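agent: user wants the full assembly modeled, not chains individually. Plan: 1) parse entity lines 2) check alphabet per entity 3) run joint structure prediction 4) return tokens. Steps 1-2 passed, two entities, 833 residues total. Proceeding.
--- entities ---
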Amino acid sequence: MIRFISKNKILTTSLFLFLVSCSEETVLYNEIENKEETIQTASLPETNNKIFQAFPNFGSNSKLFFGNEKESENLFSLVQMTLFSGYIPPTSLVDLLADSIQVDSAMVFFESADSLIATSNLSIYSVLGDQDSVFSDSTNYYTLENFLDFEKNSTLLGEISLASILPDTTGYDTLSYVFKDESLDNFKQYFLDSDTYPARTLMLKVDNPLDELFTIESNEAANRGPKLRVWYKSFVDEATTIDTFITFFSQKDVSVFRPPTIENDDMNYITLNSGSALRSIIEFDLGFIDSLSRNELFKNSNLVLSVESSNLTEDDEFYVIVSALQDSVVNWNFTSPFVDLNPNESISDTTYLSDPNFIISRKIEENEVKIPIQAFLQGYKNGLFQYDELMLYSAPVNSPFDKVKFNLNAIEVLYVEP
Amino acid sequence: MWSRNFLLALFFISTLFSQNSMSGYGYGSSLENTDAASSGVSNSLLPSFKSNVSLSNPSTWHNLLFTYLNTSIDVQNANFQSQSSNNFSLSTMKLVIPWKQKMSFGVAFEPYLFREVTITDSTMTAFNFNDEDLFYTRMNSSSGGPSLGQLSFGYKLNEFDSVGSTLSIIFGSSRATRTLTIDNENHLLQSRDYFSGAMMDLFYSTKRLKIKEKPVFLSIGLELPVRGINVENDSYQAFLDLNDNNYHDTNDFPDVGQALLPLTQKYDNELQINSYTLGADYEFSPRKHIQVEVLNWKDSGNHNLNSSLFNGYIESKNKLSIAYMKFAQPFSRDRYNFKGSFFIQNYGVKNLENINEVGLGLGVGVNFGITGNQIDFGYKFSKRSGLHLIDKETLHTFNVGVSIGDLWFVKRREI
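--- prediction returned ---
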């Protein structure tokens, strides 16, 4: 019978056997030797630390702040409006003062998601600067002397009461400054005349100190930023009059506030506060890493900070950011961009840049924050980071008024080799 | 059709490997009696495929009447302690072309060394860190291994003597992985060994010696390194395989972009094989043979890399096999070859205990077709002792070989 089997069939069969032979199973043999060196631990001694003040910057905050909060005092907010309206054809502020235009009224309005019952008034001023730009996004309490005196170089345009601020069903209440008659003349003279006062900047200030925080939406809040609407009549010819309105939007804004005072006691802890841009740097002795084999992997290595004191309330959340540094620290004393430098110090002693390859944040939970740093240690081992220092600072999502002092616990690191 | 199948076979050959505990020694274990026909007689030089022909001995190939394409696979079952494993693999693929019964050529591909083995911790171990217990196990595994590409030539010197040679090119790679699993997270350390080298086998066979007027077939085989087997080792940095795909990528720790580059090291003359084989075959009755073969094998390689799972390697091997062989009668209804054998083998192991092996072989070959096609079945049972970690191991190896014959280099009559 075999003789009738064709060669092709036999070849196909042999090829099938060939393919079947691909399958494999794994043999398991017990007991691996050298158990001792699989997992090891080490302590990470802190060799140095410093507290320093960076340059505070809150230009991108979605809120404008008013009132006093946690030892911080909000002084005023500045809002610059656009020179041209958002409509076609473009109409500038000063165009509204033309002879062919009759301005009937104007309204500057803001939105707030806060509820407030207070006896204070929120006043609005026009800053009478002779420059197009009289402030920047980085204007803050520490840099006020670099700019014109906003409070002395401004004129009051109007005020509203903060007696009853209550958001409606949309979640927002509108704070409106309406200019008519005499107040409209002031508004036209000191704000719409952008040829004379090109700053186009409004200053908002609470007349009596508020003992609670009150916010309005800033330029960064989508579609809810400050706006100016002007109703006017345009006389095209003797027979034609256009009765319409035009809207201008905010261009940039900033809240200027006096942050908590930096005290000597802050230097004894890892103290973090966004308002004063108070940050910390810790240096570790990472010398043992050089002696590790190339295949050691770091695991379970946490920077553990316990809260010594803070101004956080029960509902506040506070995130700590830890980052590697692009440059090493030279001066381990307190440094600040607002304190005169010693002759031996350079500007680099006040500016520390984060290395984007290691930036991590964690939230305070149960009076403690645990920040995994194994990626930093592994990166240091692989030559990705050159410096054995970590910078700690308050996350941008935190309230700029929150201030926390931490104690650094001893760091135990765990590393393994497969 | 022939060439297509042949190419397909070549494609798969490098992925197929068998395994047993000796795969953890040095650069792995080797398979003896790669073709199914010689499996039953447990020798390589002496006739087992056809009368006067061994597929492993080119100095006998001129006796073939047809060209043969031989494919053999083996199924191996290893038992040790209370565990067992089965494995399928290709053992050889060989094309043998005789020419005018004067000379012969051959091309073959076959796996050379097998590194398929896994060692694992039998229990979980706890490690206390910051008042937390971490439970871990480890697993070391290796797979793959080098293969051989062979070119052979056989030549009949005269009525009594013939010679042969085989040039073997060694190529291919093996992989090794060490896995540390801590609380279900796998930490992998991977490396790869790339093999290159060349060896030469020389064969001489003679029928000059006679006992009771019957010739005794004597054959000797020498294996020499043309170029020692070099190993290039690429060692990759360990990583935490966060996405469990056994591959270092951007989702792992450290990110593959932040990991150290592979460390490449070259090791020359890691394996340097010298061996000689002596065999004698005597036809004590028509078509019935008694065979004896002796093997002495030595590896004088450097073994500096030491990438094996066990801290030892086979440095010498001695084997004695005795076989009975009964061939079919050509061009008759007697189509069956029967084989039976017994062998003892001793492995000299560097750094570890020596290994002893005792085994039996059985085989049947069935001829069919006018070109002498043949299917061979071989079964080998062996026991090893002195193995690292497990001491004793029992192996059952079942081989199947298909040899297809065809007439080459003959003018066909035109119709």
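agent: reporting back. Chain B has one domain: 2-406. Residues 329 and 335 of chain B are 7 Å apart (CA to CA).
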